[in-house]
């Protein structure tokens, strides 16, 4: 298979990995984050109203507001902390850590990741792909992502051509599977 079939050599910095992690959480766990945030807002409003009802002075309002923000922040971090630890563990297991050189190859039926810790393959149907402002986020497993920055080394193609080939590959596989029925 030639490099034109989709080899991309990439190396992610710490800031790129943190950006990708936040994008992964927002896209893969949005249901939990939405309802958790909604519950925190409702509880905060209830706590502020209760404190203002019991202590009707301006200082109480400020104290209740600050207290609600601190408690909401702690609850939010508690809500995502365990997930972040699972994600970071999976990234380390697959060799997707800061400054490690990795390669992504787009084969006709699968995505192949070559990292310093091994070669991993996933069927196209199992890989969710998201565009971000800094690159492409591939999500092959529930707690694993592969972030390909725009600044990666693209063999015989540009970032936009790689991204197009990545999305076209997924749509052609879906249409081919519908034709087989």
Summarize the structure.
The chain is α+β, with helices and mostly antiparallel strands and 181 residues long. 54% of the residues lie in helices and 22% in strands.
Q: Termini separation (Å)?
A: 29 Å
Number of helices: 4
- Give the uncertain stretches in residue-range form: 174-181
* Helix/strand order, N-terminal first: EHHHEEEEEEEH
The overall pLDDT, averaged over residues, is 83
Envelope shape: elongated
Radius of gyration in whole Å, from Cα?
22 Å
Q: Taking strands numbered 1, 2, ... along the chain, how are they ordered across the largest sheet?
A: 4-3-2-1-8
Into which percent range does the helicity of residues fall? 40-55%
**Sheet with most strands:** 5 strands, antiparallel
Structural class: alpha+beta
- Please count the beta strands (DSSP E, at least 2 residues each): 8
How does this structure look, described?
With 181 residues, the protein is α+β, with helices and mostly antiparallel strands. The protein has helices at residues 14-28, 30-54, 58-93, 159-179, and strands spanning 8-10, 102-106, 110-115, 118-123, 128-131, 135-141, 144-149, 153-154. It has four helices and eight strands. A five-stranded antiparallel beta sheet has the order 4-3-2-1-8. A three-stranded antiparallel beta sheet has the order 5-6-7, with helices on both faces. β6 (135-141) and β7 form a beta hairpin. α2 packs antiparallel against α3. The longest helix is centred in the middle third of the chain and has 36 residues, at 58-93. The chain is elongated and about 70 Å long. Mean pLDDT is 83; it is low at 174-181.
